């Protein structure tokens, strides 16, 4: 059995060809897609976070709204850029959203990817300390968040408070028990995957990773997963680790599917330089009729190694069409691979 969810970047565009013209459309349709995903039997609704872009950015109002409209599926992010985050305020928002959702949040966080503006976190009031870089700052914010989510008191109470305090030091409220165990790290390299395991965070591996060996994408990603699980075991965590991978999978079952994605059938891995010091490998798109997809996906070593598969969806094609993609994977592809 494998959990299957979707991952949406939440793009919007005023283009006449887009079903998502405004930020309001993107947010409301994201909630509707989470509801539709639950109805067709999917297991998760995950949302990407980007700043200074016509894409989803502030995740917690969206997660809370989706949590109030659904009852079963996991709700998560893939990923929140910790360079931009106040970890205490984030703990409050996350705790509230998780309580509204009944403890279903699965929060993916990370150092983040190249953004729309130069050093965008500076506009949010953050900058690395002298001698440190933005990646170190992201990890420091993460350490604070993980500590706060434990729910232990750390703040000295006012001796003359407006309202009575419980005894002892105070914690951030609202606190949602168990949320600390549902934090995932989006890792691009094997080293960061091992670091995430040491911290007791689950692994979220996307459609790209650092090209560290020159091998096919799915092979490098499978080795990253193995490194993560070995580090988790060495750290001695009592919980079971989880691993998600993201893929673009487009079953072609209708003429409309063929019109949109028929040209993607020959897709291959790609390599590119996304930062000055980061050569990345991007995974292929899978687009074919279901029986062909079953054969192709059976050879994807990273999907086989993961317990959760996140399907990247073309959200600008609208809720109905994206629900159709999810249902096609669940009904026509997953059973042939033993995922259902």
UniProtKB/TrEMBL annotation:
GO terms for cellular component: cytosol. Gene3D superfamilies: Luciferase-like domain (3.20.20.30). It comes from the Bacteria. InterPro entries: Bact_Lucif_Oxidored, Luciferase-like_dom, Luciferase-like_sf. Residues 10-249 form the Luciferase-like domain. Pfam families: Bac_luciferase (PF00296). One of its GO terms (molecular function) is oxidoreductase activity, acting on paired donors, with incorporation or reduction of molecular oxygen. PANTHER family: BLL6902 PROTEIN, LUCIFERASE-LIKE MONOOXYGENASE. This is LLM class flavin-dependent oxidoreductase. The lineage of its organism: Bacteria, Bacillati, Actinomycetota, Actinomycetes, Propionibacteriales.
